Amino acid sequence: MKIATYNVNGVNGRLPVLLRWLEETQPDVACLQELKAPQENFPLQAISDAGYNAIWHGQKSWNGVAILAKGEIQETKRGLPGDPEDLHSRYIEAIVNGIVIGCLYLPNGNPAPGPKFDYKLQWFERFISHAQGLMARGIPVVLTGDYNVMPTEKDVYKPERWLDDALFRPESREAFHRLVSQGWTDALRKLYPDETIYTFWDYFRNAYGRNAGLRIDHFLLSPDVDERLVSAGVDKQVRGWEKTSDHAPVWIELK
């Protein structure tokens, strides 16, 4: 079973890239972030024609998350619990092939400090609480998406330049490490503990060409899913396609 995550940076504007990637790589499940489309403008027909069922949580102009699957999807949650006044479309959860899959788009948080950074940390706390509840149930869970956090210096090109950025500030990294310490496995780091791996390259200053990237798209696996992990990787070449997202898809394979 192949599960992927991809911040598409606009599902309609980059639909040709998304469809090409789905056709070439054929993931069984694909979690998407930054749809940047209201609920009614999700390109369901094109996704269906590509062979996928879909659930999505849209939002005009910003945010938005979706889960695509070749098989049946049973939606279990829409929106992150803990703040009924939070209207951002940043979390959707479903059961696919007996696995609970949470697809998330964690807030960026810049500029930091400030209200946006406060919101990022508050959202993070709610997510940590929700993840703890999932872990306590002892069920197979995959939590994947754009976490907007580089957990360690190995996950960022020239870390000294990012010290004041919301994605690399100590508060963000500490929250991520607290999350992982509940018992989750960072899939890419398990398989590639020492390699330089990036999942995002800015559009500016030839970042992709220089491989000046960040690792901010992550897979966290519950213990029984971790036992089934056989491979993982980044479809880096997709970042080099025309009119592509600034993120590359990330994937895992489970036996």
TrEMBL record:
Keyword Transcription regulation recorded: no
Instruction: Give the enzyme's EC designation.
Output: 3.1.11.2
A molecular function annotated in GO for this UniProt entry is: double-stranded DNA 3'-5' DNA exonuclease activity
Q: What is the main EC category here?
A: hydrolase
**Which CDD domains does UniProt cross-reference here?**
ExoIII-like_AP-endo (cd09086)
**A Pfam family hit:** Exo_endo_phos
Q: Which family does it belong to?
A: Belongs to the DNA repair enzymes AP/ExoA family.
- What's this protein's name? Exodeoxyribonuclease III
What species does this protein belong to? Mucilaginibacter ximonensis
